[in-house]
Amino acid sequence: MCTLNTRFSPRPPGPKGKIFKGSLDDFQADPLDFMTGLAKEYGKISTFRLGPFQSVYLVNDPDLIKEILVTKQQSFIKSRDIQTLKAVVGEGLLTSEKKHHMNQRRMIQPSFKKTHIDSYAQDMIDTTQSYISKWRSGEEKIITNDMMDIALGIITKTMFSMDFDEGSEIIGQPMEDVMRIGIKRMRSIIQIPLWLPTKKNRKLKRAVKILDQTIYHIIEKRRNDSNTHSDLLGVLMEAKDENNGEGMTDKQLRDELMTIFLAGHETTANMLSWTLYLLSQNPNYEKQLYKEVSDVVGNDSIAPSHFKNLPYTQNVIWESMRLFPPAYVIGRQVDKNVTIGGYQMKKGEMILISQYVMHRNPEFFENPDTFIPERFENNFIKSLPTFAYFPFGGGPRVCVGNHFSVMEGVLSIACIIKEFHLKLAPDHDEVKASPLITLRPRRGLRMILEKR
Fold first, then answer.
1. 90/88 Cα distance (integer angstroms)
2. What whole-number percentage of the chain has pLDDT above 90?
3. 223 FRET partner, CA 20 to 30 A, in 69, 289, 403, 414?
4. Are 357 and 341 spatial neighbours (Cβ–Cβ below 8 Å)?
5. In whole angstroms, what separates CA 201 from the centre of its chain?
6. DSSP code of 70?
7. Are strands 76-78 and 45-50 parallel, antiparallel or unpaired?
């Protein structure tokens, strides 16, 4: 009996699902509701099937998540859906594995040091203020589109030193096509090879080609420029491999720039949109936020130095990312057999870790579904297990741009709230989260602007 128990570990509990599809229909219908229900019913670890052969584990315990993302991370690779993005971002930090990922991260990490991030703060402020200067009181805006434009403007300015209009005209539409079609490829159970000339494949290839031409042209122009540039591209071009002293090839630069664009523009835009929505539904918290900004900034314009004096604004951003984390799920594929939580997971099986589900765990967050920015006072995050709250992931693959994102969120929201009060349009549909590559508000957010 002992021998049998050692050789065969039981499977975690979970729904039986249908004979052929397993839980595929329920998962595709509402992934957030499905994963939340599993965690409530089955606890720290559960299992289900997507289709006849794909076993999936949902892990919802900070210590077990640490094993997967840190202590036993060598046993896992990125999940298949993320691997489909290689058609777009190549071998960037998001999709690369093992040694190549480690080498690239060592080269890129210094580009996101605090000193570099601080130097981008003024660009974040200028881009936001320039954009909202065109807003008019009483106007109804699809605010999700506006936040996407602001985030696009900030990433093009800080990455390439492009002004907003220039960056939007060159990169905006093909990047939107790449994200929309890329999402559909990720969500599809059957992957249609890119070499098949379907309408969507042709459109995706055309968008990637436009982006490639643009990025390679910018890289070539910089290679021939003797001046030093302090934007992200300039810093990345200065990065050197600590083993051989070589810099990145044009292909490596292209892959990392595409990755930063895809990861840094979409996620931040959603963080800003969800924050404005939550503030519109909690007017007392919005008043507190406005008071802090007014007290700190006064009649002056917001400046980079104000960031450290806006703790309540920072807490609003942290709480927004708790309830609606832009990166709401992490997928891993078992690369070699490994035991997690007493269960043996076999090569090829899949693991899901959901920030959305964990961030609403009542064991760690009182009134978990309620927006309460004050909960992040007094170093609350440090009182939690490391992986009870992890909006930027963790371990060797923690988001390299986490400080950039928080600073952008705080400064952009401060600029907006200083000038405008926003409320949801009175005839607005019920606001629901749409779990695509990132967590977007479904069908966008229509909001009314009121100039202060």
1. 6
2. 52
3. 403
4. no
5. 25
6. I
7. unpaired
